[in-house]
Amino acid sequence: MTNWPVILNIAKTHLLTKLKSTLTAALGVTFGIGAYITLVSFMTGLNAMLDDLILNQTPHIHLYNEIKPTEKQPVALYDEFQQSFQFVHSIKPKQHQKKIHNALPILSYLKKDRKIKGVTPQARAQIFYISGSIEIGGSLIGVSIMDEIRLSNIRDNIIQGLPEDLENNDTGILLGSGLAKKMSLKVGDRVQVSTVKGDLFPLKIVGLYQSGVAEVDNSQSFVNLKTVQRILGETQNYITDINIKLNDIEDASAYSKQLASLFSITATSINEANAQFETGTNIRNLITYAVSITLLIVAGFGIYNILNMLIYEKMKDIAILKALGFSGTDVQLIFMSQAMIIGLVGGVLGLLVGFGFSVLIDHTSFKTEALPTIDTYPVDFSLSYYVIGIVFALLSTFIAGYLPANKARKIDPVKIIRGT
To answer: Which is it for strands 134-143 and 220-224: parallel, antiparallel or unpaired?
Structure first.
């Protein structure tokens, strides 16, 4: 029967008599686990911030009428031309209406669907912003602002004013921050918008909006849905876009195809809209985990080398232990215990070091005009990274300690004592 108190006591004695080697091995584990925790927390935090900036601005499903060339040309409708060679040139896209046909019944249908968390209608208009002698082309989006607040992170992007101010003001506008800067406007000022037909409408600036994407902030603003409908001279069923948020984002691709077929409309899922960005995120995550695992493997090789050297230095001790009646399994357990103690101490210190560096990064100031809602570098303090770190520390030290310990188990004490 294994006498664990004696084995652990001998292991402790070996570690303390070779304190320098023990500290070197433990620091190797500490460095590997600390670097892993710091790197994976920072990189995943950064990825989450980028995902939040891009993906939260994209609905899970976007319904709209797309302008595209007619798939079937008129000549194809006549049977007498079917057997002849036809040459059609200068094809132009068919003039589609911008508004969604039967938008209100579609909205009513979608609001009853249990798969859908929320749905918001929008009306877009191409306009010119006019202030004094400055005239800038852009777009005006009519929204139900409180529904947008409920289903997206648009509140974080309102850098001045409140969304309630827009909700309660039919002539109010959340002006893009880039537009405000170009036209030297501030909250409380008035700006005129002109439609493509030349009609002018004055609007009061109740807030400034900044998405962090310069192209958007320099051309886009928000008003109430009925304000755009009034500016365009349209009725309340004039809706050009419907944004859908699902309870499960994984249903987006399949459900968008179902809606496109059901309503004969263009439906784009979040996966299609952000295919390139999603690929970039996957590659960044792959690089993060590859570097982290490499650090842990390097730490494991360090432990193996130090334990291997320790066994060679303790050859005579091993021979004496076996001569005193310790079995090969007992000797193996002594060295495995040393490896696990090094892994446990080094792993726990590594978690503390990684957590400390993560907190330091999380409190480091990071201010940029492009991202007004970000004050510090993003860090993800997920508990799973710490669990993975300590498990990998124990596993790597177990594997690194097993081979030298197995070698110690097979040592013949007679050969050591004879010096052969």
So the answer is: parallel
